[in-house]
Design brief:
The structure is a homodimer. Helices cover 66% and strands 0% of the residues of chain A. By secondary structure, chain A is mainly alpha-helical. The structure holds a DNA duplex.
Amino acid sequence: MSGMRGTLSRQGIVEAAMGLLDREGEAGFSMRKLARELGVDPMALYHRHASRRALMQEVMKALMLSCPLPDPSGDWRADVRGLCQGLRELAHRHPGSFRAYVVFEDWVPAEHLLHEELYATLLAAGFPARDAVRAVRLLLSYTESFAVDELTGWLEPLGPRELHALEASLAGGAFPAIAGLIETIASPDAEADFAFGLDVLLAGLGQVPRDAVPATGYQQPK
Amino acid sequence: MSGMRGTLSRQGIVEAAMGLLDREGEAGFSMRKLARELGVDPMALYHRHASRRALMQEVMKALMLSCPLPDPSGDWRADVRGLCQGLRELAHRHPGSFRAYVVFEDWVPAEHLLHEELYATLLAAGFPARDAVRAVRLLLSYTESFAVDELTGWLEPLGPRELHALEASLAGGAFPAIAGLIETIASPDAEADFAFGLDVLLAGLGQVPRDAVPATGYQQPK
DNA sequence: TACACTAACTCTACACTGTAGAGGAAACGC
DNA sequence: GCGTTTCCTCTACAGTGTAGAGTTAGTGTA
């Protein structure tokens, strides 16, 4: 191979991996492709990172460290919105890595940065511990799911081919509700849809009881 | 191989694939392993299903067709809860397939069955078209995310090793909010947590404006 | 019964994957 | 100059999905 010594740093590999992941997606990523791009033998990568999985952990770490964290404004709703929006922007900036991150089964400690901001915001707003933890899970899983849906293309308006496929799948009249909603389904609006979901969550979180809940189980209201 | 003729049906392959997927997870699944289990040459599978991906589509279809759909009760909130709970039970029954389904990028028409019930419920409850579509996305992505988190083990109480790792990652005091929530984070309660999230969503959905929204964008309330 | 036909299945092979293990070459400390 | 360490390469193995050709078994017809 190139044989140039010292051109391969831990961080350099991580950045190249992130780039490859973003351009080709997780399915298109391989250690060998990455090595080819770096002009190096595949096994050279293993000198800096013990395995593909270990490298992925580093990529996820780098990803989460680059998540934008807007400054607190004092309005907890606005702050939550801003943090979720930041996470969504991260997904747009790093589509492949973000998708891999969401699917990744390992624990990624660098999430702490984002989590800390969310927890602090909710605690300051008066949420009891249990509710804050639950709320963060709710907000993050919403934002991540939405962002992945965006990356997969589910929030693009349906093209004529897709629309036709959808209509064909409804033939027979077994799904009247879906049939009546076709036009709405075919014309999503990522920005507005995302804002709607956040509003629902924030409205719901503002309404669900704020008092301490028994450790053994959550009492369903009403 | 065995050479027994006619032992291999389309549906039989799909069921065996689903079983293998559930037992070994997506990473542990391969066409060759599946063939071995069926006592057959790997290429025999390709006589019935064009590719691994096509087979996966069939597995996802079978999965969604077996999603429990409780009968409507008239109370839309209870019905939504029941449908989401049914989806969650499906995840418990078919952990590997469900995980693969959530990650799967292709469109799975068999989702229509569940979607139809949700749409019909919300429309009957008075939701305008746009809100119903958004609400269904919200409810499904919540339930799917939660179920996948359960399957991954994020909703099990933390063991001593994991707890220690978490504490170690907080050393330095950079994450006071997380540190203060450690006990709560370490002791999740899947049932109560799931119910909490659903309550938040239902409360929020009941509160967010029900009037038609302009096609170009969603007007943030207040 | 003989033969063609077709459906069901196997065999071989290719390009790809992650990575263990050994070996080589360059840089550094003395 | 010489050992030692660091960095990298080479080869190899067991695994993947699947194209393409070959084989066998069962059926329909004469």
